[in-house]
Design a protein that fits this description.
The complex is a heterodimer of chains A (about 300) and B (about 325).
Chain A: E1 2-4, E2 9-11, E3 25-26, E4 29-39, H1 43-46, H2 51-56, E5 61-68, E6 75-81, H3 85-93, E7 107-110, E8 113-118, E9 121-126, H4 132-148, E10 167-175, H5 178-184, E11 200-208, E12 211-219, H6 223-236, E13 246-248, E14 254-260, E15 263-270, H7 273-291
Parallel strand pairs in A: 1-4
Antiparallel strand pairs in A: 1-2, 3-4, 4-5, 5-6, 6-9, 7-8, 8-9, 10-11, 11-12, 12-15, 13-14, 14-15
Chain B: H1 5-13, H2 27-31, H3 43-49, H4 53-59, E1 76-82, H5 95-110, H6 115-122, E2 129-132, H7 143-155, E3 163-166, H8 174-177, E4 181-191, E5 195-197, H9 215-218, E6 234-245, E7 264-268, H10 271-290, H11 301-308, E8 320-326
Parallel strand pairs in B: 1-8, 2-3, 2-4, 4-6
Antiparallel strand pairs in B: 1-7, 4-5, 6-7
Helix pairs in contact in B: 5-7
The chains are: A alpha+beta (about 300), B alpha/beta (about 325).
């Protein structure tokens, strides 16, 4: 039984938009209660305070089911249809701490919580507190769901503009809302890089130990919008850019930006001038390579 | 009676916010989000205003005196009381230990040796008292703490029938609606959208349109505190940091991996000061756990703006008199 929470309707069989068949049982756990579907309009009812994250990634709907077994923690499955593989990756990347492809196109397991993404789906399977049996069931369920999703989906194209030298791969975040930039590296209370639902943005961290620097690459709908964003950023954050390609700021680190067509790249917190300029040069080289039909991106 | 200067000030100065009209207000704040409004702050503003980038970057609300508008002669007192035995081996709260912690905190806060007398300064027999708790499933306000507060309020002379303990539904609760005093108590945790679930955020149920405060990662949550149902009524704020959640992942934002036994209560009159202190503990824990600076995700703008924009209290550690009692190991602050 599926409860379509959006309209308060009940129906049998598969839920619209969810051609993913979940098993009725997994090991000793059995599906319990009514399945639920939430949409952008009522996700707040399900995820207390957490809906905005998924809405900012263009959530289409989420299917939720609970499995129970006496004496063991419930298993809650949330199957998010993010509308596109790019957005599914974005939601997954938001909290990724490790590189792990045990499930789907990328996964992460932490004490009872398994997260993975595949194609346009972002999947959460929670059984807390973790037991040996519940962990086995969570993994078995993940395998079933993974196999039900017939294909893999493409990563966001803008990830191609992220140079790989010294990159901390698991730090990559893809987003459409400036709040998520500030989540990982606070830049401004205001949206001075003009990041919104019409842009694709990626944040990547580089370096090691105490020396970490950040690259933000944003792709705008047009060259003009990229130029406007660069202008606003320079005026409000880096006025020194009027005369220098990069600038040393108050904490002695280096910041700089460079635009090319509809792409804007910004380096923050670089330990040396050469580091900042070098990273911007690498991004520019990738852009030029793509424009000339080559592919200067390194394999991911 | 406990001084209510901060609340009184807000009550008097923010008359325009006396109705729940969040959706319509602050157009000027939102109008120029694309960088034209220079009332906002950038990372560089913090770096210019502080001597160490590390403090500003991690807390980004810590010290810059020139951006913290209010200057008071007297520091705001916040009491941190800790006891390593507050949870038993199975993780259950020891009610006796917790009650003792509460007493120690309140007496230290008010410089009143006797807990019963301290509570008589917090509430009067004629008060109608709402104890605003929090029932988030993974990390609720401990029942033992609710009971301890209620016991002390009754001990101060308040009739049991004039006390209500509630989270959701406060606007439909007769006691809360006609309350003359509120006690705000909830656990500290990270939060998907507002950065932290904190004392300031705990009053969101005093609005029938809580989603109206979600804009800009809940930056203006402090507006709720000016709603008539709660404005100027708060007598005590208790932030539960027994097992705080310092990081959240997944749609339900909870994993025991990201909680730890801190065994504390943070208690004060000023909710902003208490929240700010709680944030510093979370930030320190995140740095310890991840081995690098990990700012809260998203930044807790609601606490910053509760000070600088809404003047509900102070978030500046330099203006907070932090009194520490009890267990010192792993205090982080």
């Amino acid at each position: 039984m599926v409860l379509l929470a959006a309209g308060g309707l009940s129906m049998s069989g598969l839920a619209p938009g969810f051609p993913i068949q979940l098993p009725d049982r997994v090991l000793e756990w059995a599906a319990s209660g009514e399945d639920r579907i939430y949409t952008a309009e009522n996700l707040f009812e399900y995820i207390d305070g957490g809906a905005e994250l998924y809405l900012s990634y263009g959530l289409s709907s989420v299917f939720a089911r609970t499995y129970t077994r006496e004496g063991e923690p419930d298993i809650t499955v949330d199957l998010f249809d993010m509308g596109s593989s790019e957005n599914a990756f974005g939601a997954f990347s938001h909290s990724r701490e490790t590189i792990d492809s045990t499930f789907g196109q990328g996964s992460q397991y932490t004490k009872g919580l398994l997260l993975f993404w595949k194609d346009r789906y972002y999947v959460s399977i929670l059984a807390s507190p973790e037991t040996k049996a519940s962990k086995a069931a969570v993994f078995a369920l993940a395998r079933e769901i993974e196999s039900e999703i017939p294909r893999e989906g493409p990563l966001p194209g803008i990830l191609d503009f992220v140079p790989r030298d010294s990159l901390i791969e698991e730090s990559i975040r893809y987003f459409h809302h400036y709040i998520w930039l500030n989540s990982h590296y606070f830049v401004s209370d205001e949206n001075i890089l003009h990041i919104d639902e019409n842009t694709g943005a990626v944040l990547a961290k580089y370096g090691s130990g105490d020396k970490r620097w950040y690259l933000v690459v944003v792709e705008y709908p047009s060259d003009m919008e990229a130029r406007l964003a660069r202008t606003d950023f320079v005026i409000h954050y880096l006025p020194e850019m009027d005369i220098e390609p990069v600038a040393q700021i108050e904490d002695s680190t280096w910041t700089g930006c460079r635009g090319s067509g509809s792409i804007l790249a910004v380096v923050f917190n670089a330990p040396a001038r050469e580091t900042a300029v070098g990273l911007l040069d690498q991004v520019e080289a990738i852009i030029e390579s793509k424009e000339t039909g080559g592919d200067n991106t390194e394999p991911r | 009676m406990v001084e209510m200067n901060k609340m009184d000030k807000m009550d008097k100065t923010d008359k325009t916010d006396k109705t729940d009209k969040t959706d319509k207000t602050d157009k000027t704040d939102k109008a120029d989000r694309n960088g034209l409004d220079r009332n906002g702050l950038t990372r560089r503003d913090f770096l210019k205003a502080t001597s160490t980038a590390a403090i500003a970057g991690a807390l980004f609300m810590s010290d810059p005196r020139d951006v913290f508008g209010q200057v008071t002669e007297k520091k705001t007192r916040v009491v941190l009381v800790r006891d390593k035995d507050v949870l038993d081996s199975t993780g259950n709260v020891d009610a006796n230990v917790l009650e003792r912690m509460l007493d120690n905190a309140v007496t230290a806060l008010l410089d009143e040796p006797d807990p019963a007398n301290a509570w008589k300064r917090i509430v009067k027999p004629e008060d109608v008292v709402g104890i605003k708790t929090n029932q988030w499933g993974h990390l609720p306000t401990p029942k033992a703490l609710e009971n301890a507060i209620e016991k002390r309020v009754i001990g101060a002379g308040v009739s049991e029938k004039n006390i209500s303990i509630r989270d959701q539904g406060v606007l439909d609760d007769e006691i809360f609606v006609k309350s003359t005093a509120l006690i705000n108590v909830r656990p500290m945790r990270t939060h998907h959208w507002s950065g932290v679930g904190s004392l300031i955020k705990n009053y969101i149920m005093f609005s029938r349109t809580p989603w109206g405060y979600h804009d800009d990662s809940c930056a203006d949550l402090a507006k709720i505190w000016a709603l008539p149902v709660c404005a100027g009524k708060t007598r005590l704020n208790i932030l539960v940091v027994l097992t705080p959640l310092f990081h959240g992942i997944g749609p339900h934002h909870f994993n025991p991996e990201y909680t730890w036994l801190y065994g504390g209560l943070l208690v004060g009159v000023d909710p902003v000061a208490v929240d700010s202190t709680g944030v510093r503990i979370l930030v320190a824990k995140r740095k310890e756990y991840f081995g690098e600076d990990r700012p809260l995700n998203p930044p807790p703008k609601s606490i910053y703006f509760a000070d600088t924009r809404h003047h509900l209290g102070t978030a500046d550690p330099a203006k907070i008199d932090l009194v520490k009692i009890g267990w010192e190991e792993g205090i982080l602050i």
